[in-house]
Design brief:
Number of helices: 1
Distance between the termini: 11 Å
Helix content: under 10%
Strand order of the largest sheet: 1-5-6
Number of strands: 6
Structural class: mainly beta
């Protein structure tokens, strides 16, 4: 799965995070930390967000999804994403992955 060149404008910093962090948004978590994690009932630390120090500006974002060729048992991850940024002076057009039925960024639906 690859999705190329959708627009994003960064102001001060960039977070890549789970959508679940927005259910009960706590702004201080984002201001005070470089990563956001939680503990499972069996004591495992899972991460739901990471801060990346990116200069303010306009970027084209590409996302590439990966699936492990040989699936491993829990707790090993079998899926991952690569985010690439290309700084631009101005956006040319409009490209939004949420408006294209061809792409599905829901890891739970991947085979």
């Amino acid at each position: 799965m690859v999705y190329h060149n959708f627009n994003i404008e960064v102001k001060d910093t960039l977070w890549i995070a789970s959508i679940g962090l927005f259910y009960e948004l706590n702004r201080n978590k984002f201001l005070e930390n470089d990563e956001i994690s939680y503990q499972t009932l069996d004591g495992e630390t899972l991460y739901s967000g990471f801060r990346y120090n990116v200069d303010s500006g306009k970027y084209l974002v590409s996302i590439k999804g990966y699936a492990r060729k040989k699936k491993l048992a829990y707790p090993n991850p079998n899926f991952g994403f690569l985010f690439s940024l290309k700084k631009v002076v101005e956006f040319e057009g409009y490209n939004d992955p949420r408006e294209d039925e061809k792409y599905n960024f829901n890891v739970a639906d991947m085979e």
